[in-house]
Design goal:
CATH architecture of the largest domain: Up-down Bundle
Protein name: Cation diffusion facilitator family transporter
Number of strands: 4
Subcellular location: Membrane
Membrane topology: Multi-pass membrane protein
Low-confidence stretches: 4-28
Order of helices and strands: EHHHHHHHEEHE
Keywords: Ion transport, Membrane, Transmembrane, Transmembrane helix, Transport
Strand order of the largest sheet: 1-4-3-2
Pfam families: Cation_efflux, ZT_dimer
Distance between the termini: 22 Å
Shape: elongated
Oligomer: single chain
Number of helices: 8
């Protein structure tokens, strides 16, 4: 029996596997956007304080809900930033055989919980305020909403490129995007209150912001669950991978194929290949590695080779 362990320099690499249109970035994706995350984090922290004070002074639920969402931004950005630092640290215990890479996914999960909690809170508070007609300072709403939109746009520009590669960065990006929509809502509410004289628009916008937050949380949550449940990586078809491996010269059978995402930009896999008697294992191993790496972006793959009629693979009992 021969065992091949194929992997690229996935810990720090920023390169790409090229071939067949399935190439994917390798290495820990979030770490490449650490500085941008830090800049967005500082901007968000400063503006959160400003918006919270303004919301309390103005009495606007829309402004307070946006401030609450900004607080969620602070936690999400901070968690994403911490995850990129922790994930790149080597494990000294010897027990974390995959290192700290999954920290990024847990940070994304935290962002989902925060977004969901904030959305529910605003909906409850809006329901509680139904029927009341508390005065709202529209001038403060316009000023703070405008400033918030500027801060959000800057943060979105900083995080946009990383949102397609890293789940942690994507979680932060979606948080900021939802907050930008919230800032637009605050401005719209202030203008509508001025035009109609009714503060009900404050509640309407607050509810709209809350619904938007919850929808975004569900979308990100599905991605987090997909990774934690170890589904096949997005864009990778296990049946196609198995078919291509079966077509490798000398391979008679493919079994125990497992493909999953460890963290953003790091797809891994294991597979057993049964070869015909007399076929050199080195050639089969090299071709199998090429199929996985260049055809499907699986940089870290463990390939076990077995010779038909010589070694019988013991199937797991689970």
């Amino acid at each position: 029996m021969g065992v091949g362990h194929a992997h690229g320099s996935h810990a720090h690499s920023s390169g790409h596997a090229h071939s067949s249109g399935h190439a994917r970035p390798t290495g820990h994706a979030g770490a490449r956007y650490r500085i941008r995350l830090a800049c967005a984090f500082v901007l968000t922290v400063v503006f959160f304080v400003v918006e919270l004070v303004a919301g309390l002074i103005s009495g606007s639920l829309a402004l307070l809900s946006d401030a609450g969402h900004m607080a969620a931004d602070v936690v999400a950005l901070g968690a994403a930033l911490a995850a990129t630092v922790i994930a790149s640290r080597p494990d000294r215990s010897g027990r974390r055989t995959f290192g700290h890479y999954r920290v990024e996914i847990f940070a994304s999960g935290l962002a989902v919980l925060i977004m969901s909690g904030m959305g529910v809170y605003v909906l409850v508070e809006a329901f509680r305020r139904l029927g009341s007609d508390a005065p709202v300072a529209t001038g403060t709403m316009l000023l703070v909403g405008g400033l918030g939109l500027v801060v959000n746009i800057i943060s979105l520009l900083l995080l946009r490129s990383g949102s397609s590669e890293s789940l942690a960065v994507r979680g932060a990006y979606l948080e900021v995007m939802a907050d930008a929509a919230g800032s637009v809502g605050v401005i719209a509410a202030a203008l509508l209150i001025r035009a109609t004289g009714s503060t009900v628009w404050d509640l309407v916008v607050a509810v709209a912001i809350a619904v938007f937050i919850v929808v975004r949380a569900v979308m990100l949550g599905r991605q987090v669950v997909t990774v934690l449940a170890q589904h096949a990586p997005a864009g990778v078809d296990p049946a196609a991978v198995e078919s291509e491996l079966a077509s490798v010269r000398g391979v008679e059978e493919v079994h125990d194929l497992h493909l999953w995402t460890l963290t953003s930009g790091m797809d891994v896999g294991t597979v057993h290949l049964v070869t015909a008697p007399g076929v050199p294992h080195s050639g089969v191993l090299d071709e199998a590695r090429r199929v996985l790496r260049e055809g499907h972006g699986i940089e870290h793959a463990t390939v076990q080779l077995e010779t038909a009629g010589v070694v019988e693979c013991r199937q797991p009992g689970w």
